[in-house]
């Protein structure tokens, strides 16, 4: 798995976009970038993943730099319910579900 | 989407007793399930991979005789913490590969997680 680095915490105002960065400079060519989040005392929730191209789904957008050394998860209109720990994970198909969770970023959305 | 159900959500037991936690895949079959553990203010750590019809695969440092895993059917995996001690108090979370989101692009790592089971050993 690629080593990932995330800021320990971030704040965001409700209704504004939350941009969460992740550095994964050692990611290899066949490793995807996955984002999960964990709301307090719950199991993690899958958000989005990507390889090279930017991705968007109903929850978020994922912007991956051209050199793939970093990415940004964007929550376009953050709500109080988006307060959670966000994990960026770089891993390939051979890991087969064995995810290595780092410390993640604690995102606090405030009114 | 795919749902993984865990039971119980909270359990308190006395030291020396055994506790069983169930993990069920609802409306889909999971030949493989993954058990994670999370200590307070720490990140999740993979404990073991549960395989239907065969022995579980344990991560380094996890005692297989203490954490018994049984995957008796395609929808149920159980984790039994035997002779539990206070240091086993933790948040135990199971997961399975999301059958809806899998595909060549996914890299087999889109998981659906249960809500977790908080074990407190007195």
Main features:
A: mainly beta, five-stranded mixed beta sheet, 9 strands, globular, B: 122 residues, seven-stranded mixed beta sheet, four-stranded antiparallel beta sheet, 11 strands
Task: Summarize the structure in words.
The complex is a heterodimer of chains A (111) and B (122). With 111 residues, chain A is an all-beta fold. In chain A, 0% of the residues lie in helices and 45% in strands. The mean pLDDT of chain A is 93. Chain B has 122 residues and is mainly beta. Chain A binds chain B through residues 30-32, 34, 38, 41-46, 49, 51, 87, 89, 91-93, 95-104, and chain B through 4, 6, 32, 34, 36, 43-46, 49, 91, 93, 95, 97-98, 101, 105-116, 118.
Would you kindly provide a brief summary of this structure?
By secondary structure, chain A is an all-beta fold.
Map the helices and strands.
The complex is a heterodimer of chains A (111) and B (122).
Chain A: E1 9-13, E2 18-23, E3 32-38, E4 45-50, E5 55-56, E6 61-64, E7 70-75, E8 84-91, E9 105-110
Parallel strand pairs in A: 1-9
Antiparallel strand pairs in A: 2-7, 3-4, 3-8, 5-6, 6-7, 8-9
Chain B: E1 3-7, E2 10-13, E3 19-26, E4 32-38, E5 45-51, E6 57-58, E7 67-73, E8 76-81, E9 90-97, E10 111-113, E11 117-121
Cα end-to-end separation of chain A: 37 Å
| Low-confidence residue ranges of chain B | none
Principal-axes geometry of chain B comes out as globular
SSE arrangement of chain B, N to C: EEEEEEEEEEE
SSE run of chain A: EEEEEEEEE
Give the radius of gyration of chain B: 14 Å
Structural class of chain A: mainly beta
* β-strand number of chain B: 11
